[in-house]
Amino acid sequence: MNADSTQQLTDFLNQLTVEKRASEHTVKSYQRDINHLIQYCTDKRISHWADLKQSDVRAHIASRHRLGLSSPSLQRELSAIRSFYHFLLKNRLADSNPAQYVKAPKQARKLPKTLDVDQISGLLEAGASSTLEIRDLAMFELFYSSGLRLSELAALNITDVDLADNSLMVRIGKGGKSRILPVGSKAVTAINNWLQQRQKNAGIAESALFVSIRGTRLSQRSIELRLEQWCKKNGIAEHIHPHMLRHSFASHLLESSQDLRAVQELLGHSNLSTTQIYTHLDFQHLAEVYDKAHPRAKKRSK
C-alpha cells in the first residue's frame, strides 16, 4: 500500500481509540485483521484502498479460510474491513464498501452429544443419600423428563409446577416465550421427595422450587457443579452437563415418536430448523445399526 493508504489506516485506528473509545485489545484486533488484507493487496499489487473490489475481498477471505481459520474468525475479519471502509466512505476516500455483501463460509454444525437410554438410567437410578442429593436427583430427573434449559430449571418457582396434573409452566423461555410441559412420573416422584425436604431449608417468602442449603434460589453454576459431583460420586467418567440431558430428551423422544413438530414445541424452539439437528442424530443411529447389520454394508476385514 502507498503512503496515503497507510496513513488512512492509522487515522482509522486513531479514531477507534479517541472517538469510539475502543479498548486497546479491540484496536489491536482491527489492526491485525486489516494487516492480513494489506498482505493480500501487496501480493496483488493493489496500492489504493479505493481500488479494492468485492471479488478481491471474497478471494482474500477464501484464502484465509483455506489456511484453516474458523467461520467466527473470518466474520470478525470481515467486520473489521467493513468498519474501515465505512470510515473511508465517510471521509470520501472510497466510493464503495467492497466487503459489504461478502459472507464468511458457514461453520460446520456440530451434532449435540447425547446419552443413550442405559446411560440415562445409570445416571438417574443411583440412590440419593442426603437432602441435597434428593434435591439434585429431582433436578436431573426434570431436565430429562421435560427437556428444560438450565436457565429455565433454575428459574422455576413452586407455583410453576402442578404435580397433580403432571405439568409445569416455563414462564420465560428463550425469546421471552412461555410454554407448558409434561412432567414424567419418575420426575413427579423425585420432586415430591424433594418438596418434603425443601421446607426444612427454604423460608416462607422463598418462591424458588430448588434452593440451596441456605434456603435461597440455586444458581445455574451451582446446578452444573452438583451434576459434576453426582457423576464423580457414581463413577461416571464422562463429562455430563445439563444441556446434554436436554439433548438426550429430544433425541430419544424424536427417535420414538418421529414427530418433529411436537419435539419443537416441547423444546421451545422458534424455528423448526433448530430442532431438525436431532433428525441427524436419529439418522446417525440408524446408519450405525445399518453398518453393523447389513451384509453388503459391513467393511471387509484386512
Overview of the structural elements:
- The protein has 302 residues and is mostly helical.
- 57% of the residues lie in helices and 3% in strands.
- The chain contains 13 helices and three strands.
- The chain has helices spanning 3-18, 24-43, 54-66, 71-90, 117-124, 131-146, 150-154, 185-198, 220-233, 242-257, 260-267, 272-275, 277-293; strands at 161-162, 167-170, 179-182.
- It has a three-stranded antiparallel sheet with strand order 1-2-3, with no helix packed on it.
- A hairpin with an 8-residue loop joins strand 2 (167-170) and strand 3.
- Helix 2 packs across helix 4, helix 6 (131-146) packs antiparallel against helix 8 (185-198) and helix 6 packs across helix 10 (242-257).
- It is elongated, with a radius of gyration of 27 Å.
- The chain starts with a helix and ends in a 9-residue tail after the last helix.
- 28% of the residues are buried.
- The mean pLDDT is 88.
